[in-house]
Amino acid sequence: MSSEIKTLEPSAVWSRFADLNAVPRASKKEEKVIAFMLDFGKKLGLETLKDETGNVIIRKPATPGMENRKMVVLQSHLDMVHQKNADTDFDFDTRGIEMYAEGDWVRARGTTLGADNGLGVAAIMAILESTDIPHPAIEALFTVDEETGMTGAQGLKAGLLKGEILLNLDTEEDDEIGIGCAGGVDVTAQRTYKEEPVPEGTIAFRIKVKGLQGGHSGMDIHKGLGNANKIMNRLLFDGFENYGLRIASVDGGGLRNAIPRESSAVVVIDKVHKDAFVFEFGEQERDIKRELHTTEPSLEITAKPIELPAKVMELGVQEGIIKALYGAHNGVYRMSADMIGLTETSNNIARVEIKDGNIKISCLTRSSVDSSKTDLANALRAVFELAGCEVEFSGSYPGWQPDLDSPVLKVLREKYEALFEEKPNVAACHAGLECGILGQNYPKMDMISFGPTIRGAHSPDERASVTSVKKFWKFLKEVLKDIPEKE
User: Fold this and answer.
1) 185 with 396: CB under 8 angstroms?
2) Which pLDDT value is given to residue 228?
3) What pLDDT was estimated at residue 432?
4) Where does the Peptidase M20 dimerisation domain start and stop, copy by copy (predicted)?
5) Measured torsion, CA atoms of residues 229, 360, 203, 260, in degrees rounded to the nearest 10
6) CA distance linking residue 296 with residue 298, whole number of Å
């Protein structure tokens, strides 16, 4: 399969992407891909090093005639989101991504593709090994753990980089030039509960929500997509209110930066309510599908009889946590008043785990305005504390403030218009790019972000456009030719 991908154009990029995708590279498990990149740089005879955090830096001198240009940092992250469909048997720790081309799209079989940010990494690799592409002196910066905390960017020390301009290759629309991004904070609510014997005269059901699109919890949060955790809680709330439903366990969602696609719960109800519960559940299923039919045409909601579990949650805690999850905000909280169409603040209820006497609810709150981020995080804290949870804020990272007077932005704008005879979309995004964090230790660095078109990032529907990669590659090479001279 990788051999098929390597024949795509530009082969310099797709070949490196196929090589990269043969290496397992989950966030916080980047040992193999770090070794892969160190070996790549050293085989090219280039200065190659790893910092204390695990970031890899490879330096390449300017090509003849480009020595008087400013040094450029080409930056992408090595890790990828590992998500798969429930019916896909795949071990991310030992297997490379299985890719295939379908029309203009490259996809993976039942898993995330890793185009985020693997195509950026591959493009940088292609520049590093090139012999015929003019460019200034380059520092290739490959960061780690971008997807689960941005600890690579946070751990990069001041003074290590020498470049004056940073090109972040992690934007997912090929007509967009990124000049700003949102910051974020993890909001985690936890508490314990007593388990009680299953009441007599009850029957059990396993409720499943699946078939949702999922997607990036920042870039896709405004699209009205279904959140499996919110849908499941709606069903549990209705069953509890009307039929005294009791919860044995809930397992919903996955990574904090992915809109949850699936959730499963084991519940019990009195046998006398079975027919009414099944009828009411069917009504709820139809209502929810009707509400989401445009954005979630493949949504499946089922309730199937199973054997009775051993225990259920204590009643008081169950009621509190169901109500808290119903009241907790999910989705867009505020749109930007300054940049039309930009989501300013949002929350993703990413993970709900209820089992064996423990509750854990994981959220990712994002905002381009720090005070608004704090406001929403506090709103979540309040509702979960009312349910008896302890709430922790962690992994906070800053946004990246736009600079419309950026010299490198002027270069990219003019180059884009000349190449493609249209104006680029200069915008901030609601994702968390590493530029904001890197800017803390390198405040004078002129930063910009761009990349090829990628759809469905952070989900098994992730795909990359072949024609867009060709466009992106052409743009990158031309931009490197026009980097400003040293002052």
Assistant:
1) yes
2) 98
3) 81
4) 208-274
5) 20
6) 6
- Measure CA 409 to chain center: 25
pLDDT tens column, 114-153: 999 999 999 999 999 999 999 999 999 999 999 988 899 9
Buried b (16+ CB within 10 A) or exposed e, 214-234: bbbbbbbbeeebbbbbbbbbb
- Burial tier of 89 (Cβ tally within 10 Å: 0-12, 13-18, 19+): exposed
DSSP line for 293-322: TTT-TT-EEEEEEEPPPSEEE-HHHHHHHH
Give the DSSP letter string of 126-145: HHHH-SS-----EEEEEES-
For the chain, give every domain's residue range.
2-182+399-481, 185-397
Q: Which two tokens stand for residue 252?
A: 């919903």
Low-confidence residues in the chain, pLDDT < 50: none
**What integer pLDDT is reported at residue 277 of this predicted model?**
97
pLDDT at 412: 97
Q: How far apart are the C-alpha atoms of 50 and 41, rounded to whole Å?
A: 11
Condensed to tens digits (0 to 9), the pLDDT of residues 36-57 reads: 999 999 999 999 999 999 999 9
- Whole-number Å distance between alpha carbons of 135 and 120: 17
Give CA–CA dist 481/414, Å, rounded.
13
CATH of 185-397 given 1.10.10.10, 3.30.70.360, 3.20.20.70, 3.40.50.2300: 3.30.70.360
Active site residues: 79, 146
- Superfamily (CATH H level) for 2-182+399-481: Zn peptidases (3.40.630.10)
What's the pLDDT at 79?
97
CB 447 within 8 A of CB 439: yes
